[in-house]
Specification:
heterodimer; A: Transcription Regulator spoIIAA; 69% helix; B: alpha/beta; Rossmann fold; 6-stranded mixed beta sheet; 4-stranded antiparallel beta sheet; ATP binding (chain B); P-loop_NTPase (chain B); ATP-binding (chain B)
């Protein structure tokens, strides 16, 4: 079918009446003069009445409707009477449907200057809100834990068991891989330096102490922050979206006791166990590298045994409990405060991991300083 | 005589070995407002998902203008779907996009409108559903009824030949619900599209539908087909008459 270019023409019929003749095919792919042209023309004419003539209109789709709607709205704004002749019946009907509800007056949001985020007042407000929010969360969690110890909390043992399983055995594979490799990395790192002094055998001490005090627990915590912390945030965020948390609250059950306590406890209980497991695998990893440098497994074990002390082990385990708590708190807090749409759940998961890792590093540094001062 | 637009032929739907509905056989004419009705859990939404090609039937076929959906390739199916507008139960709007972006997406994907035309068309589509001026709102910032209408605006973005609705008036107050019904009728009349909806809202069934099918949960097949007003008064199935007259009775032993 031959196409005619879409067009319109504004003519003056008599002093008051203007006629807008629409012609051609108003369909996608054809360009037409824009609405502004019509608006300018209409402005010059000062008519009281506009008649749209559709006798020469060919094919049409939403482009025509969008144009006519703009014409209609313009006429309404300028108090010009709008009428038509020769337009197809369904065009008239669609126009009627589209123009029944007046447009929503939109308040344009105030544009923020690019340096808005540097505003000290706002920064202070954000930091204060975040701090207060965390304190409130920790306070509520403490109350819930206290109620749990006297046996008055609505916490289900089966939930706790499930979360333990998710946070513990399910994480073995990834923890095995990372801690084995971290042990090997630690050994390589030390070996190069120590061999220069002919002290290659002390790689065993380095790996054992390094894993027990620091790397075993830190790597396990980072993996768990990405794995379980994010999962907690996503679960709770989705529950928030589905109004499940509202349902729990209105049942008279505290979401803190019902949802968060089992998650926090599971991670606090599982982290030390995962840390022990990570320590063993890390030391094995170090042994593999040491073997490659001519240190026999027996020598490695004998030297390593001397390095193991209860103090090192305890430092690592204390850290693991603290880290477990921090990861769970970061994850649950992000999740429970999540917004109610899909983007917000994603944001909550990201926030959970980022916050958890920041908490981990800060806490690790703080604990190290304290133990250094106490000479443990 | 109007033409058959959608033909469901000998359709059996099952999840694994559990049959939901069997031997469904009905035609939907061009320009019909067709309602799929039935008690809770009878497989209404499942049937709709089959018609949209989201689930594959255990046996049977669904033909659109004589073209099989079941045996269509993924590409053919996408092409067929471009001619449909679909409104999901909870709207299905993308929550991370504004209403304008939601409506712009199908336009960007499948049309060659210029950016300026697209904006005008978005304004027009929103005006059609009574949401003029809401371009820059996010779905979470508007009410449930408005979300349904915004979803409808997105569904009609490509001027579809068939409009599918899954429970359009679920969760709406009677006034919003009847306004939506009115809007569906007006759009149907002015665009000539075929409308297929799943609903059990009697007022809207009687207000707008001109053809319907009743799926029975107990016998697991369709037990009535025709104009719902006709069925209410003259159906030979007691269950259907009760459903449409909103009567509870001991004769209907549906699991709740």
């Amino acid at each position: 079918m031959e196409q005619r270019p879409p067009g319109f023409e504004l003519t003056v019929q008599d002093r008051q009446t203007a006629v807008l003749t629409i012609s051609g095919d108003w369909i996608q792919g054809n360009t037409h003069s824009d609405f502004q042209t019509f608006k300018d023309d209409l402005c010059c004419i000062h008519a009281d009445k506009l008649v749209v003539d559709g006798a020469e209109l060919g094919r049409w789709d939403s482009v025509l409707m969008a144009f006519l709607l703009q014409c209609y709205n313009q006429c309404r704004d300028d108090n010009i009477e709008f009428s038509q002749r020769g337009l197809p019946a369904n065009v008239v009907q669609l126009l009627e449907v589209a123009s029944t509800v007046p447009a929503h007056e939109q308040k344009a949001p105030e544009a923020e200057p690019w340096y808005g985020f540097l505003d000290p007042g706002r920064l202070y407000g954000e930091v204060r809100d975040a701090t207060l929010g965390t304190l409130e969360f920790v306070g509520e969690l403490s109350v819930a834990l206290a109620r749990l110890t006297v046996g008055r909390a609505n916490t289900r043992l089966s939930d706790f068991r499930d979360f333990c399983y998710q946070a513990g055995p399910n994480a073995f594979a990834i923890i095995s891989l990372t801690s084995l490799l971290v042990g090997m990395i630690l050994a390589y790192l030390g070996a190069v330096q120590l061999q220069q002094f002919g002290a290659g055998i002390y790689v065993a001490d380095l790996v054992v102490i390094g894993m027990l005090r620091e790397m075993g627990v830190l790597m396990a915590a980072v993996v768990m922050a990405g794995r379980t912390g994010a999962a907690y945030a996503a679960q709770l965020g989705t529950m928030q979206t589905n109004e499940e948390i509202d349902a729990i609250t209105t049942m008279g059950v505290s979401p803190m006791e019902f949802l968060i306590v089992p998650r926090v406890l599971a991670l606090v209980v599982m982290m030390p166990l995962l840390t022990l497991y990570a320590n063993v695998l890390g030391i094995v990893g170090g042994g593999i590298v040491a073997g490659g440098m001519g240190i026999t497994p027996l020598m490695y074990i004998a030297q390593g045994e001397d390095a193991v002390s209860l103090a090192h082990l305890t430092v690592g385990l204390i850290k693991s409990v603290v880290f477990g708590l921090l990861i769970a708190v970061a994850g649950c807090r992000s999740g429970i405060n999540s917004g109610r749409d899909s983007a917000a759940v994603g944001q909550a998961a990201t926030e959970a991991v980022v916050t958890a890792i920041v908490y981990l590093i800060v806490a690790d540094a703080a604990i190290n300083i304290v133990f250094q001062q106490l000479e443990i | 005589m109007s033409d058959v637009h959608i033909r469901v032929s000998q359709l059996t739907m099952a999840y694994g070995s559990r049959v939901i509905q069997r031997d469904l056989d009905f035609d939907i004419m061009k320009g019909d407002i067709f309602v799929i009705m039935g008690g809770s859990g009878c497989g209404k939404s499942t049937l709709l998902k089959h018609m949209l090609g989201l689930l594959s039937p255990a046996s049977g076929d669904i033909l659109f203008n004589g073209e099989s959906l079941v045996s269509a390739s993924a590409q053919q199916r996408d092409r067929m779907r471009q001619r449909w507008g679909i409104t999901y139960q909870s709207g299905g709007l993308f929550s991370a996009m504004t209403l304008a972006e939601n409506i712009a997406l199908p336009l960007q994907l499948y049309t060659q409108y210029s950016a300026a035309d697209r904006d005008d068309i978005i304004a027009y589509k929103l005006a059609l559903v009574g949401l003029a001026g809401y371009q820059d709102f996010y779905p979470s910032e508007i009410s449930g009824g408005m979300r349904k209408r915004a979803a409808l605006a997105r569904a009609i973005a490509l001027e579809p030949e068939i409009l599918f609705f899954d429970e359009p008036s679920a969760g709406l107050d009677p006034i919003s619900s009847s306004l939506l019904d009115e809007l569906i009728v007006q759009l149907q009349q002015s665009t000539g599209a075929t409308v297929v909806m799943v609903t059990h809202e009697l007022p809207s069934i009687f207000a707008i539908a001109n053809n319907s099918v009743y799926l029975d949960a107990k016998t697991k097949t369709m037990i009535a087909y025709g104009d719902p007003r006709e069925l209410r008064d003259h159906s030979d199935q007691a269950v259907v008459r009760q459903f449409l007259a909103r009567e509870a009775s001991a004769a209907v032993e549906e699991p709740l």
